Amino acid sequence: MAVNSVSITGNLTRDPELKATAGGTGVLSMGVAVNERRKDPATGEWGDYPNYVDCVVFGNRAEALARILARGSKVAVHGRLRQDRWQDQDGRNRSRIEVVADEVDLMQRSGEARAASPSPTAAQASPTPAKAAPADDLYASDIPF
Fold first, then answer.
1. Is 60 exceeded by the pLDDT of residue 134?
2. Is residue 11 very low, low, confident or very high in pLDDT (cuts 50, 70, 90)?
3. Residues contacting residue 111 through CB under 8 Å, at least 6 positions apart
4. Which pLDDT value is given to residue 2?
5. Taking 50 as the threshold, does the pLDDT of residue 56 lie above it?
6. Percent of the chain at pLDDT exceeding 70
7. Rounded CA gap, 85 and 12, in Å?
8. What residues contact residue 10 under an 8 Å CB cut-off, 6+ apart?
9. How far apart are CA 43 and CA 45, in angstroms?
10. Given this model, what pLDDT does residue 1 score?
11. Could you say which of 6, 61, 98, 121 has the lowest number of CB atoms within 10 Å?
């Protein structure tokens, strides 16, 4: 039995791109940089070496994430691997592997991501503000139980 499951944590390398299928389903494409820490054999120094992973999200989740994610956002992506195969204009066989995300967790508040990398659509896609906490005097009366 084979298990196709992957989890990665990293930063978005670019602003996510939202498109739609012919049927109207949202498709969000994003790139995630995942660092690998290893020793440089030439210098003996430890360093971070980035791996760039293409990810895609479908449906209502794609549309919701498009409003709050931006370049530099730290995310955890959980999903499965999918390989696309095609022939280029020269007739050569090409392929790539991407993560089809079932779940995307934001690892920071959306305001932090926007401040780190403002985008032209950042002001348009601000999340709904949270409701204010109830006033303390609301609970000052005695409760009969």
1. no
2. very high
3. none
4. 82
5. yes
6. 74
7. 24
8. 32, 33, 34, 35, 53, 74, 75
9. 5
10. 75
11. 121
Range from 36-45, 75-84, 105-114, 128-137 carrying the lowest mean pLDDT: 128-137
Residue 61 amino acid letter: R
CA dihedral defined by 52, 58, 61, 64, rounded to 10 degrees? 80
Tokens encoding 40: 């440089």
Instruction: Judge whether 50 and 12 are in contact, CB under 8 Å.
Output: no
Instruction: State the CB neighbour count (10 A cutoff) for residue 13.
Output: 15
Query: At residue 131, does pLDDT exceed 80?
Result: no
Which residues are CB-contacts of 37 (< 8 A; sequence separation ≥ 6)? Answer: 46, 47, 48, 49
3-state secondary structure string across the chain: CCCCCEEEEEEECCCCEEEECCCCCEEEEEEEEEEEEEECCCCCCEEEEEEEEEEEEECHHHHHHHHHCCCCCEEEEEEEEEEEEEECCCCCEEEEEEEEEEEEEECCCHHHHHHHCCCCCCCCCCCCCCCCCCCHHHHCCCCCC
When pLDDT is averaged across residues 4-17 and rounded to a whole number, the result is: 96
